[in-house]
Design a protein that fits this description.
By secondary structure, this protein is mainly β. The chain has helices at 76-86, 113-119, 178-188; strands at 2-8, 17-19, 21-25, 28-29, 35-38, 58-60, 66-68, 71-72, 91-94, 108-112, 130-133, 147-150, 153-162, 191-200, 202-205, 210-213. It contains 3 helices and 16 strands.
């Protein structure tokens, strides 16, 4: 297996950015999901209910600060763009902790070419951080409770991820095809790709080898 793609989503629910290499920290991909939009009540906006958020591009500037369509997140133009697509009085919040405001489940998502092929769509719909090539069919489902070495990092596999309506939106056109989610539910028990946590931080690059491990084979420091 090898690492085929790496993705970071600096602003939650916005388009991500493809990376050639990155650091996997204890909190997942460095710079991932640092800003989110929320109501004054504190409830977070996501593309599950406001799909047009997926049409805005998230990124990081040269100083490592999140941007929205190239504009620093705390500039008025960035907030105006989010309010335009949510049609609500949203506010933008920076948060680098590990709570649900930042990560819906766990800080790292891993998808495989076999799992993507089983659904038959553009893999970007799964919004994973790491995409692996060289995985046969649905072999990923047997990895729960095991570990993956990705370059210099090691991550643990907690569960196969339950999917939601976000998979139904084309990542470029934003056109919705509910049949994608129906296929996942009727043919794949509603789950695909993996929720992972970080065991050992480290740098990972596209093209790095990916190795499946039992936890007992890891050094004690892990």
């Amino acid at each position: 297996m090898r690492v085929a793609e790496l993705w970071r989503y600096p602003v939650k629910s916005l388009r991500g950015e493809s990376l050639a290499e990155t650091l996997i920290t204890a909190e997942g991909i460095e710079g991932d999901r640092l800003v989110h939009a929320r109501r004054s009540s504190g409830r977070v906006f996501t593309a599950r209910t406001h799909s047009k958020l997926l049409g805005l591009q998230g990124g990081l500037d040269a100083d490592g600060m999140p941007t929205i369509d190239g504009v620093r997140w705390d500039e008025p133009a960035a907030l105006a763009a989010v309010r335009a697509v949510t049609q609500a009085d949203a506010e933008l919040v920076y948060y680098d902790g590990t709570g649900p405001e930042r990560f819906d489940v766990l800080p790292l998502s891993v998808a495989t070419d076999g799992g993507v092929a089983a659904v038959g769509v553009d893999g970007r719909r799964f919004r994973a951080n790491v995409y692996l090539d060289g995985v046969e069919g649905l072999a990923e489902r047997k990895w729960v409770g095991l570990a993956l070495r990705l370059g210099e990092a090691v991550v643990g596999v907690r569960q196969v991820r339950g999917r939601c309506v976000m998979t139904t939106f084309d990542p470029d056109s934003l056109e919705q095809d509910i049949g994608v989610l129906q296929k996942i539910y009727f043919e794949l028990d509603g789950v695909t790709a993996l929720d992972c946590y970080v065991v050992e931080p480290g740098r990972v690059r596209v093209g790095d080898e990916a190795e499946l491990l039992d936890f007992w084979t890891l050094p004690r420091s892990a």
